[in-house]
Amino acid sequence: MNICQQSVSRIITTVSNSIALQMKMFVKFPSTVEDINQVKQKFFEVAQFPGVIRCIDCTHIKIRSPGGMSSEVYRNRKGFFSINVQAVTRPNLEFFDLVARWPGSTHDSFIYNSSSVKQSLNIGDLQGQGMLLGDSGYAVSSVCLTPFLSPNSIGQEMYNNYHIKTWNTVERTFGIWKRRFPCLQMGMGVKKETVVAVICACATLHNISKMLDDVMMPSTDDTDDNILISNIDNVPVQENPNSNGFLVRQSIVNRFFYCIVF
């Protein structure tokens, strides 16, 4: 197109920032009881796991070294520089919430503990009327359910199976998101602030495309490890059998998963 690289960089920055500013209009939690109940029902239809209103996970977006004294905090456990992006998703593979500001060395659980998502669940407001599903990189709590690290009963094993099937919707969301926008898969060589804008812009455009039933939606049939750079050697959070979260999780097993018959 006979446009110099400097002009292209300025255009990318300007357009990405403009779209990112609209993210709150399209990436948001349901606002009514009816909408929340509909989300619960859709999650239940995935794998019959009760009471789920959102799933959470993080994924790494490659960046170039930001330079400076603090650049090493962006190096993740795989050894490359990245931004660790936290996403909360809905059952139809849209984003409810996206946080794209933490360096690659930041643990998923730290990002969650610092987020408004956890605050809304703990407060129990309209957005918190249900359970959040996370993987073993998060601590189990009365509002955030994770798999059993060492299941010791049929009920716990069934809980894990149904949990993973339901939680996997967030991984599928990452998969189609990165297939739609290859820069998220391959990484970006622009400055860190522009990378954050591009990530937010891509999440906004992804939700818009879902709302418009985009016929060009990428396939979600398989999971490509080269695309899903998430949970990079994530260290499981150790469990306390006497914690409130552990007891709540076990009560769900006793109520819903011991009565399953094949």
UniProtKB/TrEMBL annotation:
InterPro entries: HARBI1-like, HARBI1_dom
Pfam families: DDE_Tnp_4 (PF13359)
Keyword Transmembrane: no
Keyword Hydrolase set for record: yes
Needed cofactors: a divalent metal cation
GO cellular component: nucleus
Top-level division of the source organism's lineage: Eukaryota
Compartments in which it is found: Nucleus
GO molecular-function term, one example from the UniProt record: hydrolase activity
Entry keyword set: Hydrolase, Metal-binding, Nuclease, Nucleus
Segments forming domain DDE Tnp4: 56-207
Family indicated by similarity: Belongs to the HARBI1 family.
Designated name of the protein: DDE Tnp4 domain-containing protein
